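Fold Annotation — chain and its backbone

Fields — amino acid sequence, C-alpha cells

___
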Amino acid sequence: MKTPSRFQQGFTLVELMISMVLGLFIILALLTMLVNTSRTNTEMSTVNRVIENGRFAVQLLATDISHSGYWGGHVPEFDSLIASTTAAPADVPTAVPDPCLAFSSWDPAVTPNHKNNLVGIAVQGTDVPSPVPSPTSPFCASAITNPQPSTDVLVVRHLEPCLVGSGTDDCADTRTAASPHLYFQPSRCSTDTSAFILNTSTFTLKAGDCAADAPIRRFASSIYYVRNYANAVGDGIPTLVRARFGVSNTAAAGNDPAFLPAQALVEGVEGFRVEYGIDDRSDTGATVDLAALGTAINWLTTAILNTPVNRGDGLPDRYVRCTQGAACTADQMVNVTTVKLYVLVRGEKASTAHTDTKKYCLASTCTVPADYMGPFNDSYKRHLFTQTIRLTNVATRRETAS
C-alpha cells in the first residue's frame, strides 16, 4: 500500500505581515513603558533631590541659628534677671553693628560700644532688592558678591562650643601674629574690671575662684545669602552660600580677622527670606525697648520678683523682616528671640511637560506682591520649606515664672 506524501507548509505572506505588525505593536508598547518608567524615575529623582537639598539647607541654618547668642556663660547685664540686680546695665547695644567693620576699628577709642553691640545683638540681616543695587548691601558689601535678587542676608554670631586647647580644629590655640583668630573670654570673678574680653591676644580674666584663668572660646560668625551661581559666574544655578569669620592670612588684608570668601553650601536654593520674632512686651504688656533695658529691673511685685515689667518674657510678640527700605533698628534686633526661615528650592534640571505657575508665599502673612516669589513659568520643579528656630541662649534668659 502506498503512503500519501506529506508536505511542510510555512507562513503565508499575509500571515507574516500580520505577525510582524503585532510584534511591532508589542515592541512599541514595551518601549513606551520603558520611556515612561525612565521619565517617572527621573522626575522622582528630581523631586527627591529638591526635598533633600531643602531639608539640608534648613537643618544647616537652624543648627547655626540655634547657637546664636552663646557667649560661654556670659550674660549681658541688660538681659540678666538675677534678683539682686539693682543697678542700671551699662552694656545695652546702642546700634545695629556693622559685621564687617575693619578689625582695626574695633578699638573702643575708635568705635565705642562696637563689641557690646556684637554681643548684645546675636543675629541681624537685610535684603537684596531687585534689581540688585550697588553696593549690594548696607553692610558687608565686599563679602556679599553676586547675590540673587529678592532674597535676604542673615548674619549669625556666637562662640564655638569647645574650649581653646581642647585639641579640635575649631578650637586650636592659634594666637599668633600670622594667624590672629578672634577669641572671647568671659569673666567669672567679681574683682575683674571687664565683663568679657573679645580680642586676638592678652586674656587676663579669671574663673570663679579669681585665681585660675577663665575659659577661652573662639568667636564664630557667618553670613548666609543666595548667590546667583554655583561653581562659575554665569552658570545660572542659584546657591545658598556662607562666608565665615576667620583670618585671611594675607599681608594685603593685614592678617586681621575678617570674613573669608563665601563657600557654596546647597545648590538650587532660589529663594531665601528671614523674619525675626521680636520680644518687645513684658508679661504685663509693657513696651520693652532700649530705654527700658537701660534701666534697673522694675519688678511688678518686689516681694516675689517673678515678673519684670521692663524686660521681655522670651516669647515673640510680632515678626518683622529687615530690608534696605525698612532697616531693622537696634530696639528690634536686641529683642529677637526667634527666627523664621523661608527657603525656596528648585530642581537641578528642567522637567519636561511641567510648567511652574505657582506663587510662593515667603512671609507670615502675604499681603503685597513683594511677599511672593513667582510664578516663574518655567519647567523647574520647586518646593518651599519653612521653619521657626528659637534662639535658646537669648530667649531662656528672659523666661519668667509667671
